[in-house]
Protein 1
Amino acid sequence: MSRVDGVLFDVDDTLVDTKAAFAQALAAIRARYLPDLPVDREADLLSHWRTDPGGHYRRYTRGETDLATQRYDRAVLLHRTFGGPPLTRADFDEWDAVFWGTFERSWTAHPDARAAVDRLVAAGVRVGVLTNAAVDLQVRKLAAAGLPDLPVLVGVDTLGFGKPDPRVFLEAADLLGTAPGRTAYVGDEPHVDAAAARRAGLVGVWLDRPAHRRGAGYGGPGADEDRAQDPDMLREQGVEVIASLDALPGVLDLR
């Protein structure tokens, strides 16, 4: 028998290559607002945005601020850190159009995502999405990335807070219609995703993509040290560790 009846996926940097999309968006910001910053510093911009040093996205996932405010606050900090011009609220609509427009146009799925979902469905496993972003946003993102059939069951706006709170994992499993102990959660952040799911009673799976080890997921809270956790230590905590979604059926014992 399979270990699970259902699999819940994270979206950003698990199914969708959000890191690459952010890189494109921040390259557009550098060209428009930080023209004196060398092109080879774009990697620093990306790391700053994804590690969220001001903790603004973390406050959003705890229900302490709204989406637009956290993005504005992160933009202000980015400019301050890299020598950009002061960014006022009046300026932000134009800034966000450059950033967000480029970001949306850059959404693509990871090459292993479609096949992994199809194999689970073919094995009779229920699939769905639990995300720390808004439901409508992730529905659009998955559709643009070629995964429109994946239902987004729980977002940060569903309960007013997100991962790593155990209640969001239990709510998603309930909506998927599977018992927590027979439900896997697959995500690219070791603690916010996999370890938190394990603590909630699910099967936690950390997707440790080698190319994505530096920086957190979509505005996620884990700085580089979160990604640098020893996989063996996580395995000792009962977390499964895979380097590609191609390995997911094997750790879930799908037959």
Note: The domain at 6-17+108-251 is CATH 3.40.50.1000 (Rossmann fold).
Protein 2
Amino acid sequence: MPRPKHCRYVSSAPSVNYFKPCGIPLRELEEVTLSVDELEALRLADKEGLTAIDAAQHMLVSRHTFGRTLASARRKVATALSQGLALRIEGGSYAVHEGKCRHGRMAQEACSCHTSNEYKEISMQKIAISSEGPTLEDWVDPRFGRAGGFVVVELPERKLDYIDNGASQMMAMGAGIETAERMAAAGVEVVLSGYVGPKAFDALTAAGIKICQDVEGVTIGEAIENYVAGKYPFATESNKQ
């Protein structure tokens, strides 16, 4: 049985819950449903310009959860706009700040939607390292956009996962941006790689993902240990050509 979804805190309930193309009756349209928490993530990131850290704190979720929520919201809005679909705003597991949870509890109370596991999640960090293979013994791939894949590590538990990046390797242009979007969709908070170009750097930064550059000549396992030891500073601009 899947665990219940945690509440995400929003500033207010939406005043409008439907958008549709002009001149087409609603009954003739297919629709996409955007949850209230997805709308809030979109508002905080794209209207208010908050970083992923600040927005996640506002919603009382982890950066990983916020990244997934924002990526889902952007995908739904883009689908509705590009395909001429109606956009319905409703649902989701959310609570209004200084108000009641949609499950009927006060936001200040210990709603069962929020557990100690959620606060544990907030303290975790998810890093992705461009890699030539899926194991700790594989070497760091110095390329970001055209890396073969990414070893993903959740700290402090060091749970490992792997994201294949083969699709971006085949792209003639835009590989860095595509890879950055893949990182954001996976909820990655920090990227370790050798070279990160300007466009990829901007895309990662816009998603609230921090970047450690010039990481090469070491294995994935060694890169993780170096990162934990604080040997890789966060970059403030992309690599110079």
Note: The two ends are 51 Å apart (CA to CA).
Protein 3
Amino acid sequence: MLFVNRLSRLPYWLLAALLLGVVFLWAMLSRQDYRVILAAVSQGITTTVYVTLVAYALATLFGLLLGLMRMSHSRLAQEVATFYVEIIRGVPMLVILYYIAFVGAPGLSDLVNALGRALAPVVPGLGEALTAFQVRNFDFTTRAIVALTIGYSAFIAEIFRAGIESIDSGQMEAARSLGMTYWQGMRAVILPQAIRNVLPPLGNDFIAMLKDSSLVSVLGVQDITQLGKVYAASTFRFFETYNVVAFLYLVMTVGLALLVRWIERRMKVAS
């Protein structure tokens, strides 16, 4: 009875989505071809989740730093952060992926080799190790994580900036009047409130990154999309394969969206 009451309180769109999900899952499990596809494609879930979690954690830290730089009293810090944010936000994520994978990684390898040659006369062991460094030491999963971190950090920086600006300036003045420095007031007074305000948009960005992680398949990273692409190309079952791929992404994204909404409601109750 309790379960029925909870179902009755769910919005109609969610009930419809759950019904379609159950029907589609039953259809997949009842057919041999779908079961084979699901077993093959679901192996990429671990890679998809790993790339998303690591890239988002790094992007959040870097975005917070950029957001603080944009709010800094230093003109140089403001200009550097603004330049980065505006440039990166203007470049498509797919282009960033290609650039980091095929331009940035070789360039970094050349830089490490040059540093190794410079250090060889002074520190022979370290110099030889750096000189022997090759671009293939950066696997494509790492390059994909770096690219997603760079791309999303610019958007997350704007989220943090907006969150900080949403806090009344009088609170910083009160913190300064108590003897706190600017950064102490930011850390102890402003940031805790700002982070509370930006949790919902940060959750939405996490969902967006989960979907954009499918772009790493262009680099051959063995995520859900790549495994689906390989399986479809080898069996010509494009319809069935991409049904499964879409279903797996929908389950993850809708689940995360519901989690974000639950967190929002809890935050409203707590406040």
Note: The mean pLDDT is 86.
